[in-house]
Amino acid sequence: GRGFKRVDEQYVGAFARACKQGGVTGYAVVSSAGASPTSSFLYMKTKGLADQAAMNLGFDQCVILRPGWLARGESSRPIEKFAHCLGSKGFPPSIIAGAVVRLFEDCHHLHIGGTASNTVANEATMRAWFKS
Q: For labeling, which of 7, 48, 56, 108 is most exposed (least CB within 10 Å)?
């Protein structure tokens, strides 16, 4: 519990703050589908709190990428392996990486929406960015 929160909330938040203080204007972070600061589940709540903290920093562009289960192959986590057994194919990390690269190559071409420069991207949005 505490180690997870330290890494996925505190370290992610510290990195976002350091980026902002260093003059970085565009910030993207990989979060999780279902992330919410009000969730009763530790994983979703921790991810949601980190997302909210990043969005509150005032980057010119802050993008929160929220894929579902990841398709990591042999390096899958136990919960991802379980999801695979239930029929989930998972989301390819290569598409997430490609979407981030494309995102920062040409933000305006992607027609990014959202309020106050914050965008939450689901799997469909990431696929569209990766293909464009």
A: 108
